[in-house]
Amino acid sequence: MRGKAARQATMLTAVTPDALVPQHHPIRRIKPMVDRALAQLSPTFDRMYAANGRASIPPEHLLKACLLMALFSVRSERQFCERLEYDLLFKWFLDLNIMDHSFDHSVFAKNRQRLLDAEVAREFLLEIVGQAREQRLLSEEHFSVDGTLLEAWASVKSFRPRDEDEPPSDGGRNPEVDFRGERRSNDTHRSTTDPEARLARKGKGKEAKLCFGAHVLMDNREGLVVDVRLTPAGGASERDAALEMLEAVPGAGRITVGADRGYDTRGFVRGSRKSRVTPHVAQKQRSAIDRRTTRHEGYRLSQRARKRVEEVFGWVKTVGGGRKLRYCGLERNRFWMELTTASYNLVRLSKLTPASA
To answer: Rounded to 10 degrees, what is the CA torsion of 80, 82, 39, 337?
Structure first.
């Protein structure tokens, strides 16, 4: 018998978002870890806001929204706010009721500076790393480091001479620009859209783009991100950021770090050993390390494990939406990078944590 399409809307229901999210959905393992980390950051949130006045959107909602944007590849804050109006899983994750309306997308821009000043994204990432440490999922001794370029939200057309008085007036917002025969460098030019982005290329024969440098320190046991940095692209930023992250590793014992050939320089090897780190870098023809390092079995294991760091960059660029950054400026993109790598850790931890947790 053919069923009839019911057109009568339900006037009263006792269903909650929690009842509609499948019990075996991976997001159910992620939410308790997020709630625990945010509870630890509650004193920081109290210091960020005044004691009286009109209540604002809770910072927990903003941070959870950023995590959902990374986990579900939402392209923009405006699109997220539109989806929050009807997506019950999103409402459940933010602890909203079915009838609660979404907030306006301008809330992100108005409240982001508070979160930036308090370095909330970095504190949240460290809280997630701390949970992994409590579960003994970190080796604490063996790490890998690598860097990549993330394309900035700026066109090469905006890369203009620093002493230029006025940009080309023809063509409106997208003027005709001819760079043929012009020598461009970061010393003489800068982007009018994002002055902190720098012109760089990943390798020979590749197209030069306006980029930022992203650097990740990964634990070799389970492939979790321990630390992350975002710097201007080019120069020795990869090696400098790596040394900075290695110095911040807790503990007093000696550790090892695997890396590719780009880190096989005397400066990086000397700086690593000065920071109680044994550099297991891939060797160039004239290498800064010798058989005193490469003859050990640990060197071979580090070289095999370090390749997993590419999984982090692959996830950040595809699922996390970082193939082309959506913000201008180093500070805001660093905030995004820290939350996105925290989302990657949450996905990894949800697979490593027992179902009963």
So the answer is: 10
State phi, psi for 325 to the nearest 5 degrees: -65, 150
Look at residue 162 in the predicted model and tell me its pLDDT: 84
Task: Measure the CA–CA gap between 19 and 30, rounded to whole angstroms.
Answer: 17
Count the helices and strands in the chain (H runs, E runs).
14, 8
Distance CA 141, CA 302 (A): 11
Across the chain, the runs of DSSP E, i.e. the strands, are 142-151, 159-161, 189-191, 198-200, 209-219, 225-232, 255-259, 277-281
Our CA angle for 138, 263, 220, nearest 5°, is 15
pLDDT digits (tens, 9 = 90+) for 298-312: 999 999 999 999 999
CA gap 279, 271 in Å, rounded: 9
Q: What is the pLDDT of residues 112-150, one digit of tens each?
A: 889 999 999 999 999 999 999 999 999 889 999 999 999
SS3 state at 122: helix
The domain 141-152+211-328 having CATH identifier 3.30.420.10: the answer here is: yes
Name the average pLDDT for the chain. 90
Calpha distance 338→126 (Å, rounded): 10
Q: Enumerate the domain spans of the chain.
A: 17-117, 141-152+211-328
Q: Which residue has the higher pLDDT, 231 or 2?
A: 231
CB 209 within 8 Å of CB 201: yes
